[in-house]
UniProtKB/TrEMBL annotation:
Keywords: Signal. Residues 1-17 form the signal peptide. PANTHER family: BLL0132 PROTEIN, PEPTIDASE S9 PROLYL OLIGOPEPTIDASE CATALYTIC DOMAIN-CONTAINING PROTEIN. It comes from the Eukaryota. InterPro entries: AB_hydrolase_fold (IPR029058). This is Uncharacterized protein.
Amino acid sequence: MIAWIPCLLLLVGSALASHIQYRYDTNDSDPFVGGGSDQGWQIMPEVGGATSYPQWPLDPKGRAKLPVYQTTGLVESEITRAVIVLPGKPRDCWYYWVIMNNALVKANAQNSSIDPSQISIMAPCFWTELDVQAGAAQSDVLVFGLTTWIDGKENVGPSTISKYSSFRVLDDLIAYYMDRIRYPNLNTVVLAGHSAGGQMVQRYAGLRRANVDDDRLHFWVANPGSLMWLSPDRPYPNASCEGIDDYKYGLAGNFPWYGRGLDRDSITPLYNQRIINYAWGTADNGPGDTRCEAETQGSTHLTRGQNFVQMINSTFGWPANATVDWVLGVSHDNVGMMESDDGIDKASVW
Ligand SMILES: *[C@@H]1O[C@H](CO)[C@@H](O)[C@H](O)[C@H]1NC(C)=O
Ligand SMILES: *[C@@H]1O[C@H](CO)[C@@H](O)[C@H](O)[C@H]1NC(C)=O
Ligand SMILES: *[C@@H]1O[C@H](CO)[C@@H](O)[C@H](O)[C@H]1NC(C)=O
Ligand SMILES: *[C@@H]1O[C@H](CO)[C@@H](O)[C@H](O)[C@H]1NC(C)=O
Ligand SMILES: *[C@@H]1O[C@H](CO)[C@@H](O)[C@H](O)[C@H]1NC(C)=O
């Protein structure tokens, strides 16, 4: 009795402190970090409102580690929603935590029922050898190829861990939030990504195995540079473009280790049951990926999106669990997409 009173006070104290920490009035900018995506990032910067975990343990034994940012000071039992936001191609995970948090602050300002103390944002960092050399990555965290983390390839380091797909990392982070003992009131995990992050979300939605938690898992795919096409045909076929239907552009084969044993017939029915919210900016007229495989899908981000939506609709019928937002006037703009009414709705409400 006497022993646990101070303990209780401590708990109450830390819960109060955590509520005080939350800042409802911010619009933070991209923190300065030395180095860059080409030279390697030098540090994981401090981000107001988030805690950086340079070595977040992924598997139960804590052997595999990945850096993440996570909202600071929330009470786990009060959290109803988690948003795992993926970085863009520059691997600038800190910025994506900041943008998603800014969008949440805006959401709360517009709709006070959206309570930021109930929404945990996590931004994982997929480092490469460059980031180990430059200093941001500690030597024993998982590292990946420069862009191959985007489509689910295996880690390239550390040497003690093999075949750890970036998609397995997503499995681990989603499972962390889906744990009903840790998060008894969590209803929804949103896996969100823009551009390269949007590509990662879309392909992961295809290769992830069916799981009891899938009814609480939402995918937000915004402005992806190219898509994992579901049907073998393409809007702009090109006979001299080899492997147009191979993964990562299609489903004929060439899957990474994570997708071993899968094929089109096993992937498409599950993919089309998933709760996938697509979003394209109607001014996203950039070509993005200019490889011939991507060109067969359309000439810009937007036209690839339009063609993809049409392909799903005509091949399978529009899936009951999928939505598309055409975000008026927004270009290839992570902030514009996440802070749009539709972006806010899909991250914080849907
Ligand atoms: C936050 O700042 C960015 C960049 O200055 C701006 O584009 C965005 O609209 C701002 N958001 C809010 C909610 O004020
Ligand atoms: C929609 O998603 C729910 C939850 O995962 C699932 O039970 C249901 O079967 C899906 N509906 C369709 C038509 O795929
Ligand atoms: C078709 O693919 C070939 C091989 O990559 C490429 O040289 C050619 O430009 C492509 N044609 C079109 C119309 O994109
Ligand atoms: C799918 O096609 C139907 C029939 O043409 C159309 O009404 C619907 O809007 C389409 N869905 C999407 C998401 O484009
Ligand atoms: C405001 O947020 C609540 C809680 O998420 C939601 O149920 C409601 O639909 C939102 N209202 C609008 C107009 O988005």
